[in-house]
Amino acid sequence: MTVFDVKKNIEQKMLKSIESFKMDLGKIRTGRAHIGLLDHVHVDYYGSMLPIPQTANVTLLDARTISVQPWEKKMVNVIQKAIRDANLGLNPTAEGTLIRVPMPMLTEERRRELTRVVKQEAEAAKVSIRSLRREANDTLKKIVKDKEASEDAERRASDDVQKLTDKFVAEIEKLTEAKEVELMTL
Q1: CB contact at 8 A, 154 and 143
Q2: Average pLDDT, consecutive stretches of 10 residues, N- to C-terminus, the chain (186 residues)
Q3: Of the four, 23, 35, 78, 91, which is 20 to 30 A from 158 by CA?
Q4: What is the domain count for the chain?
Q5: Taking every annotated instance into account, which residue ranges of this chain make up the domain Ribosome recycling factor (predicted)?
Q6: Are 66 and 52 contacting, i.e. CB atoms less than 8 angstroms apart?
Q7: What is the pLDDT of residue 150?
Q8: pTM to 2 decimals?
Q9: In 90-150, where does DSSP find H-type helix?
């Protein structure tokens, strides 16, 4: 493995950490409806546990209401129960073959609680990025020890890895700040 390979590999892993963090932020609801909220709710569909979007059409009726239309009529009650049991604070109602999922208003206390959750998720993402930096630096030291690269190359690569780390930590902070603003606005 070369110094270039180490930097490229670590950058890809850090990008995956950022994508994972973005997905985690997407799970935290802000009072506005978005169809991604139900992506992680699974239902029993003929013996297989599938996410709701794989068993029904999920759309937005308006800014505060999600519409779920199961492909099979017998799935209406199953999907409705799964949404209710998903512990998202949602109360779906069935109207024939259509399930309406209204988004309740968030209280001030709940908004503050959710901002704490966002901060915890951000800290976990930063820890992930920093552990990737440590992994890259250890790999670079091993490359120098095995005489596959010079100490100068290792030092430059370590500086590049630190710059990548700083860049991704700054991106996490930017995403966190944006999510907190989104949570605190009505």
Answers
A1: yes
A2: 86 93 80 77 89 91 89 91 83 91 82 86 94 93 87 89 94 93 79
A3: 23
A4: 2
A5: 21-184
A6: no
A7: 86
A8: 0.69
A9: 108-145
Q: Do 95 and 135 fall into the same domain?
A: no
Question: Is the torsion defined by CA of 179, 180, 184, 185 positive or negative?
Answer: negative
| CATH number reported for the structural domain that contains residue 39 in this entry | 3.30.1360.40
Q: Which residues of 95-130 are buried (b: 16+ CB within 10 A; e: fewer)?
A: eeeebebebeebeeeebeebbeebeebbeebbebbe
Full domain range(s) for residue 171: 3-27+108-184
Burial class, 73, CB count within 10 angstroms (exposed 0-12 / middle 13-18 / buried 19+): exposed
Domain end marker among 47, 77, 102:
102
Which segments within 20-178 are labelled E, that is strand?
42-45, 48-51, 56-62, 65-70, 93-95, 98-102
Q: Return the residue matching tokens 């890259």.
A: 136
- Clarify whether residues 138 and 170 are in a common domain: yes
**Of 81, 102, 123, at which residue does a domain stop?**
102
pLDDT number for residue 171: 95
Q: What is the pLDDT of residue 64?
A: 84
- Do 112 and 134 lie in one domain? The reply is yes
